[in-house]
Amino acid sequence: MLIPTLLKWTAKSLRRLPMAATVAGAGWIGYSVFKIDHHVPVPRPVPGTEGEIDLSDAGRIAVYQGERDTGTPVVLVHGVHAAASAYDMRPLFTGLGWDRRVIALDLPGFGHSERTDRRYTPQLMTDAVVGVVEKVAGEPVDLVALSLGAEYAAAAAVARPDLVRSLTLISPTGLGGSDESRSPSNLRASGRGSSWGGKLANLIANPILGQAFYDLLVTRPSIRYFLGKSFVGETDAGYENFAHLTSHRSGARFAPLAFVSGALFTPDVADTVYRKVSCPVLVVYDTDPYSSFDGLPEVAGDMVNWRAVRISPSAGLPHYELPDETISALTEFWDGLDPSDQV
């Protein structure tokens, strides 16, 4: 008697599940519309001075500069995820700024840069990187980029080799080889070429549903979960807090939802971009829950201008967990540049 009763109860519960999910979804949409503040004030992601430049395609780009004005400029390009900003590169901004001219930017649609509802593409991001190097640095730079930002920095180096002395890629996307993940469901760098990106198009286009979906991605528990996967040790509390703040500004959803849909990844980037970079390249990596580096030995082995340094233990953010080791690797790389390799 007990087993038939349980089976009957289970069947009845399963029939009710869609209705329960519908009610829960409607409740969350209402909470998103009426309870969540989407106009939260956000401080600067890094110390130093903040300015902005206006680019014809990329729009208004927020730029941050350290106090020093000596040496080859270092330009820092953050990664792309649901709550990205120049804060991604904060340890390098502060760690390198004591003796180098350091510049960081918020990519279009992130941080303090313009967050309008428009078409976000890899080209738009690349244009922003080129614009900052050209208009702010004003001379060849050492370009350092994280995760998906590495694709845009590399594309900038290909488009304008005269502006890039060297390129450093930290936990870059696009080097997973044939086994690279294609799931776009994480906070930081997700898989490329989302097979379900098209199914998200209608959801993202709807201002109410799109906002509710994004709000779900950037709840504190969600940010804590996904960011925590990028740390071997304890998650950086300041990083987590800033991620929550910057994801609650007006227009914050547009670029991240383009990322979630897969629109911000470059198809076959290893062949179409990475292999075309002519300046010296350093790859800093270890493990990463969101990216594979299985294809790195092949690319680095084929390219005489590439070298790789493994900084362990880290899980995608070595400059946060092992900042001294990361900065030492960068400094050694830059010090070893042959004058003939420089622009």
If you had to describe this structure to a student in words, what would you say it looks like?
There is one protein chain. The protein is an alpha/beta fold and 343 residues long. It has a single domain, classed as Rossmann fold (3-Layer(aba) Sandwich), CATH 3.40.50. Helices cover 41% and strands 13% of the residues. The protein has helices at residues 2-34, 90-96, 122-137, 149-159, 197-205, 207-217, 220-228, 237-246, 254-260, 269-272, 296-302, 318-321, 323-335, and strands spanning 49-55, 59-65, 74-77, 102-105, 141-146, 164-170, 281-285, 306-310. Strand 3, helix 2 and strand 4 (102-105) form a beta-alpha-beta unit. The N and C termini lie far apart (82 Å).
Radius of gyration (CA) equals 21 Å
SS class: alpha/beta
Main sheet: which strands, in order across? 1-2-4-3-5-6-7-8
Biggest sheet character? 8 strands, mixed
Count up the helices.
13
Distance between the termini: 82 Å
Strand content is 5-15%
Q: What is the total domain count?
A: 1
The CATH class designation is Alpha Beta
On the 0 to 100 scale, the average pLDDT is: 88
Concise structural overview:
The protein has 343 residues and is of the alpha/beta class.
How are the secondary structure elements laid out?
Blueprint: H1 2-34, E1 49-55, E2 59-65, E3 74-77, H2 90-96, E4 102-105, H3 122-137, E5 141-146, H4 149-159, E6 164-170, H5 197-205, H6 207-217, H7 220-228, H8 237-246, H9 254-260, H10 269-272, E7 281-285, H11 296-302, E8 306-310, H12 318-321, H13 323-335
Parallel strand pairs: 3-4, 3-5, 5-6, 6-7, 7-8
Antiparallel strand pairs: 1-2, 2-4
